[in-house]
């Protein structure tokens, strides 16, 4: 069984080497998705279900539910953005998704977790042989 001192040394090494995880998408895309979810939440009349709206936005319904809970507790920031920028536009979301794709190609985003180890190595070697 390791000693207390060695455990503390290992913990200090881990803390020194820690880095924050990479994001799933660009900041612009995340902000626009939040604005679309807020628009869906505050819409009147007939609107799609939460799962359907999440699917249309390309996000998980659990993230949509998390955003809804956050907006229910404090929506002041979203109302301010709504007043400042108006309704979100699909063209803005498309542009932000394109930027996220470029970031992903540069390896700045999370992803490729569903690729095999061999495919990841092949992609890595492709970048350095070009």
List the helices and strands and how they pair.
Elements: H1 4-17, H2 27-42, H3 50-57, H4 61-73, H5 76-85, H6 90-105, H7 117-129
Helix pairs in contact: 2-4, 2-6, 3-4
Structure description:
With 130 residues, this protein is an all-alpha fold. The chain has a domain at 26-107. The protein is 69% helix and 0% strand.
Largest beta-sheet characterization:
none
Report helical residue fraction: 55-70%
Number of strands: 0
Distance between the termini: 49 Å
Q: Briefly note the structural class of the backbone.
A: mainly alpha
**Roughly what is the average pLDDT, rounded to an integer?**
87
Order of helices and strands: HHHHHHH
Number of helical stretches of at least 4 residues: 7
Tell me, briefly, the overall form: extended
Which residues sit in consecutive blocks of at least 5 with pLDDT less than 50?
none
What portion of the residues fall into strands of 2 or more residues? under 5%
Calculate Rg over CA atoms: 20 Å
């Amino acid at each position: 069984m390791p000693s207390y001192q060695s455990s503390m040394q290992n913990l200090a090494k881990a803390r020194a080497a820690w880095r924050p995880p990479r994001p799933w998408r660009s900041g612009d895309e995340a902000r626009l998705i939040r604005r679309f979810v807020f628009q869906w939440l505050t819409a009147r009349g007939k609107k799609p279900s939460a799962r359907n709206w999440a699917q249309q936005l390309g996000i998980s319904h659990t993230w949509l539910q998390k955003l809804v809970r956050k907006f229910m507790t404090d929506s002041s920031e979203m109302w301010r953005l709504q007043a400042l920028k108006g309704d979100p536009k699909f063209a803005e979301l498309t542009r932000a998704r394109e930027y996220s794709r470029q970031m992903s190609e540069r390896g700045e985003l999370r992803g490729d977790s569903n690729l095999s180890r061999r495919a990841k190595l092949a992609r890595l070697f492709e970048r350095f042989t070009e």
